[in-house]
Amino acid sequence: MSPIDELEGYSRKFKFHIVLPNNLPPSHEVPFGHTRYKIEAHYNGLSTLDYFNVNQWVGLDKRNDITVKRATFSVPLYTFCQSIEMILNLNQSYYLPGETVFVIAMIQNNSRTDIIFSKIVIVQTTKYWKSHQLLPIKHVRIIAEGIRGYIHSGNKQIWDSHPLNLPAIIPTTSISNNPFNYFEVKYKIKMLITLKNSNKRKVLKQNLFIGNWDKSIATDGKQFIDMLQNNNSTYEVGVKDCSIIKTENNDIDFIPKYMVYEKIQV
């Protein structure tokens, strides 16, 4: 292309317009691999490059689905009817990066032993299938958590709209939905308890879907109406570094940026 006007500090400047193809896998970093994009420039035998970030649209087709998960766990070595009941209640199971997950939960300790530890976490699981390999390579990281303390025998513990803030993260990514995806990324919310004098944890799980777009909502690309609340509330779209990757590896040379949706009042 022809050079355009000279810029301060540069002898020549060239302007290019590049259109990325559809269905590109999103940028992603895990300890066993990554998806990265770089742009290179070559001129008169000289070259330079820089990495850039690619996101992927993953549609939110519905948002207002209430999820209630419950389970009753028997306690080993105790007589009949000695159990622990766990209930996990979510107003929805579809979320946006940057959104707050409000958890309503109850743990009823009907056993004769104390619960020394309770925790609710949101977990990101990345899987990659190598060629001619039956089982995938897997990486698991906690992206949000809440911790509570002791529950004595015969007592209960209530989590009343406990907030878990979703950071800037890659959306739920499926290989089956897009053959160009290299990784499958899924999310779960887990409720865990640990009994006194026991190394085994009781776990209650629920799938979460992390998306970043609803085709039914008109938008200018910067903000859209929050369908769950009212017309006075909107989400503003921004871009942030994936902080959980920074925490995992301070020496990494590329940190992906993901879209994040922050609720604002208008």
From TrEMBL:
Residues 84-210 form the Arrestin C-terminal-like domain. Pfam families: Arrestin_C (PF02752). It comes from the Eukaryota. InterPro entries: Arrestin-like_C (IPR014752), Arrestin_C-like (IPR011022), Arrestin_domain-protein (IPR050357), Ig_E-set (IPR014756). One of its GO terms (biological process) is protein transport. One of its GO terms (cellular component) is cytoplasm. This is Arrestin C-terminal-like domain-containing protein. It comes from Schizaphis graminum (Green bug aphid).
